[in-house]
Amino acid sequence: MKTILKHSIRYYSIKLLSNNKISSNLYLLMFKTLDKPVTEPKPPQFIMLWVPGYEAIPMSVAGFNGENNTLSILVKPVGPTTKYLASMSCGSYLGMYGFLGREYIPPGNKFLFIAGGSGLAPILYYLKYLGCTPHKCHVLFGCWRRGEIGDAPRLISKLGGKPYTACLGECDYQGTILDAYTRINLEGYDAVIVSGPPEMIKNMLDKVNNTVNHYFILEETIKCGIGLCGKCSLGKLDKLLCIDGPLFNYEDTVRVYS
Ligand code: FES
């Protein structure tokens, strides 16, 4: 197994500035980094967030502003640590290290982003980083229920993207995100970037239209985030998600899930 230690661990203190519930199960948290990170993150990099009394967990960067040292993450409260995070009050202190993982900026002028649930986090940062306009960046955001979509379309628009929604209720596409994907004409897009839970990505691989390059941001178990523990080994691919990912091309993603 290839193991390359790229990062030494240096924790930064961060202070919670705002905690906004943007849908029935997503919270957007903005922190101020008290020690300025050395470099700005590039999408789809992530941080290890240390939550006092709980654990360190990987979180995608959903936003960053180097001028006022603010960093945003998107939290879906599913376990004890994320539930605690979603309930935190402004002024709380946490720790983080990063930015981790490999950046990838797709070449081209027009992109389709597909995000399921909390997979929206790295897509939000892509929108900001690429300086998106409604012509350049289209975002298909899918959840099961309308309430889980919440305010996400407004957030996507604010960052320059053109939002489309998919859910089993009142959405632009009624049905699953995969149903919606198969109904989109991919002509004119330079790349499709997909971010979401493993089940969504596995199911999508069979339906991929390979006339356009597809890239997948994978979510698997990450413990150390810096290539030390091997927990994020991608089996047949002989790669580590935390070092070589989190984004992989179609061929590599097929090998991960085959
Ligand atoms: S080696 Fe990737 S999480 Fe530890």
Automatic annotation (TrEMBL):
<dbReference type="GO" id="GO:0006221">
    <property type="term" value="P:pyrimidine nucleotide biosynthetic process"/>
</dbReference>
<keyword id="KW-0408">Iron</keyword>
<feature type="binding site">
    <location>
        <position position="242"/>
    </location>
    <ligand>
        <name>[2Fe-2S] cluster</name>
    </ligand>
</feature>
<dbReference type="InterPro" id="IPR012165">
    <property type="entry name" value="Cyt_c3_hydrogenase_gsu"/>
</dbReference>
<keyword id="KW-0479">Metal-binding</keyword>
<feature type="domain" description="FAD-binding FR-type">
    <location>
        <begin position="9"/>
        <end position="106"/>
    </location>
</feature>
<feature type="binding site">
    <location>
        <position position="224"/>
    </location>
    <ligand>
        <name>[2Fe-2S] cluster</name>
    </ligand>
</feature>
<dbReference type="GO" id="GO:0050660">
    <property type="term" value="F:flavin adenine dinucleotide binding"/>
</dbReference>
<dbReference type="InterPro" id="IPR050353">
    <property type="entry name" value="PyrK_electron_transfer"/>
</dbReference>
<dbReference type="InterPro" id="IPR017927">
    <property type="entry name" value="FAD-bd_FR_type"/>
</dbReference>
<dbReference type="GO" id="GO:0046872">
    <property type="term" value="F:metal ion binding"/>
</dbReference>
<dbReference type="InterPro" id="IPR039261">
    <property type="entry name" value="FNR_nucleotide-bd"/>
</dbReference>
<protein>
    <submittedName>
        <fullName>Dihydroorotate dehydrogenase, electron transfer subunit, iron-sulfur cluster binding domain protein</fullName>
    </submittedName>
</protein>
<dbReference type="InterPro" id="IPR019480">
    <property type="entry name" value="Dihydroorotate_DH_Fe-S-bd"/>
</dbReference>
<keyword id="KW-0411">Iron-sulfur</keyword>
<dbReference type="GO" id="GO:0016491">
    <property type="term" value="F:oxidoreductase activity"/>
</dbReference>
<dbReference type="Pfam" id="PF10418">
    <property type="entry name" value="DHODB_Fe-S_bind"/>
</dbReference>
<keyword id="KW-0001">2Fe-2S</keyword>
<feature type="binding site">
    <location>
        <position position="232"/>
    </location>
    <ligand>
        <name>[2Fe-2S] cluster</name>
    </ligand>
</feature>
<dbReference type="InterPro" id="IPR017938">
    <property type="entry name" value="Riboflavin_synthase-like_b-brl"/>
</dbReference>
<feature type="binding site">
    <location>
        <position position="229"/>
    </location>
    <ligand>
        <name>[2Fe-2S] cluster</name>
    </ligand>
</feature>
<dbReference type="GO" id="GO:0051537">
    <property type="term" value="F:2 iron, 2 sulfur cluster binding"/>
</dbReference>
